[in-house]
Amino acid sequence: MLSHSFSPSPAIELLSRKDVLAVIPLVKNCEPFEAGLIPAGIEEANAQEINEVWTVTEEVSRGKTGECNWSKTSELMCLAIWLSKNDCTTIEAATKNAYAAMLSVLMEAGYPHPFRFWNYLPGINAGQGDEELYKKFCTGRLQAFEHLGYTPDTFPSASALGHHTEGAVFYVFASATKPVHFNNQNQVNAYEYPRQYGISSPSFARATALTLQQSPYLFISGTASIIGHKTVEAGNLERQLHVTMTNIEHLLEHANPDNRTLSTFKVYVRHPHHVQRTKDWLEQRYPGVDAVYTLADICRSDLLVEIECFCR
Ligand code: 3EB
């Protein structure tokens, strides 16, 4: 069993539990600590001390291989790698190297199927046109996947956001067994976005289904107000929320082989003054879904909000 929850207990205390796969403190710092603890630079929107916690029902072992911190069970490995402030000045090469390192550790450890990536970068919207940091990150990521022989049908679900601190972190969940990846028929596949969005398309699926110890799960990628390949409802928060949740509902209906239901939301809001309205909108419509609200930059500068989901 895999569960995702939000806890105010101290991160170190959470990490002392044997069934904890990963603790992600929603704090401003982004730096390696110890295996299983992933400070990612994504802040809780009201500066509350909240940790994301991923728990399993097996005993977890933790360690470090090369630059990668990991924690694992017999079926699942969580791997994290940080880039320094200096690495981020050459984000394309640094991303390629970091992804190549992660994918090879996963392969050697017997978890060859990455199914969910999180990518948190500084200044994600900095730079003009093809020089935008996010676009260079996309090139590095695609080069690593291609170099190691991953084809678009194996691209995992993902989120890619900008934080407001230095350094970057990538972390991934990977499995020993094969997951199933899905796209959204109302959106152009991310890996087929047209040239205007950058030299290299983003390498991710819209949702991924996976069964662990007989329990099926659905991971929904960071989802935003995009229809086809275009951002829609630029400048309007509530309408972006509506389009985003329509995309998520479409995945729940058409990319959900085991009929999973929404368990948690991780919500990324660009502007602090939009946090309360985002909360109100979602709590009114999805009162049963446990949610955490963070401040982050979305990878297209016209997107105001992005939502990812864990379903079980
Ligand atoms: C989008 O749909 C919005 O580059 O890994 C969402 C989820 C987005 C993941 C990624 C980007 C990524 O294109 C942005």
The strand line-up of the biggest sheet is 3-17-16-19-13-12-11
β-strand percent reads: 25-35%
What ions, cofactors and ligands are bound? 3-(2-carboxyethyl)benzoic acid
Biggest beta-sheet profile: 7 strands, mixed
In DSSP terms (H or I, runs of 4 or more residues), the helix count works out at 5
The rounded distance between the terminal residues' Cα atoms is 10 Å
- The total beta strand count reads 19
Helix content: 10-25%
Q: What structural class do you assign from the helix and strand content?
A: alpha+beta
Number of domains: 1
Shape: globular
Succession of helices and strands? EHEEEEEEHEHEEEEEEEHEHEEE
Task: Give average pLDDT, whole number.
Answer: 98
- Per the CATH scheme, the topology name is 60s Ribosomal Protein L30, Chain: A
Give unreliable regions as ranges: none
CATH architecture: 2-Layer Sandwich
Write down the Rg: 18 Å
InterPro entries: FkbO_Hyg5-like_N, RutC-like_sf
Keywords: Dioxygenase, Oxidoreductase
Domain Chorismatase FkbO/Hyg5-like N-terminal: 52-174
Protein name: Dioxygenase
